Amino acid sequence: MSSVMTLDRLTTLSGLSVLDHLDRSVSIPILDGPQAQGDLIVLPRDLTPDVHCHAQYFTRPVPTTGLELLRSTGGGNPHTLVAEGPGCRWGRFVIDPTRLALGIVETTTVAYLIHPEHGATGIAPGSYVIRRQREHGVGGPRFGTTQFVVD
């Protein structure tokens, strides 16, 4: 699509909704570097040399209606990956020593992460690892337990 993507256009395209406090006329930024959206971090593949494709790795097309990548265990709001058009693929069978990677998105078109509370962020064409954040329990990383944001 050649025109600027707004939150209103993206929600219409995908059929997904966002909360009323968000301005739907805002243009969605498209980034080709690291970015975060709530519990998720998007990193270009060249910044994540420790993440590898599993032997059973395969990808599936990302539809304009989206693929849910992460939802909190309490049934909270989902992070959904949406493709602007054909050429975006998602693979979730990856090997990551940190166990934070949800998968890899490879796209020749713009893709978007949309979340009801956070709105949307744009992902420029390229290859990216999408990871979840990690928080440390009481006592810090050395003495506490590691928990994921959504655990």
Short description:
The chain is mainly beta and 151 residues long. The protein contains 2 helices and 15 strands.
Q: Could you walk me through the main structural features you see in this protein, from its secondary elements to its overall organization?
A:
- This protein is mainly beta and 151 residues long.
- It has one domain.
- Helices cover 8% and strands 40% of the residues.
- It is built from 2 helices and 15 strands.
- Strands 2-3-13-10-8-5 form a 6-stranded antiparallel β-sheet, with no helix packed on it.
- A hairpin with a 6-residue loop joins β6 and β7.
- It is globular and about 40 Å long.
- The C terminus is likely disordered.
Give the terminus-to-terminus CA distance.
37 Å
Mean pLDDT across all amino acids = 85
| Fraction of residues in helix | under 10%
Number of continuous helical runs = 2
Work out the number of β strands.
Answer: 15
Strand content: 35-45%
Please state how the strands of the largest beta sheet are arranged side by side: 2-3-13-10-8-5
Question: Radius of gyration over alpha carbons?
Answer: 16 Å
> Can you tell me the number of structural domains?
1
Shape: globular
Low-confidence stretches: 147-151
Sheet of most strands: 6 strands, antiparallel
- In sequence order, what are the helices and strands, one letter per element? HEEEEEEEEEEEEEEHE
Assign the structural class, choosing from mainly alpha, mainly beta, alpha/beta, alpha+beta, or little secondary structure.
Answer: mainly beta
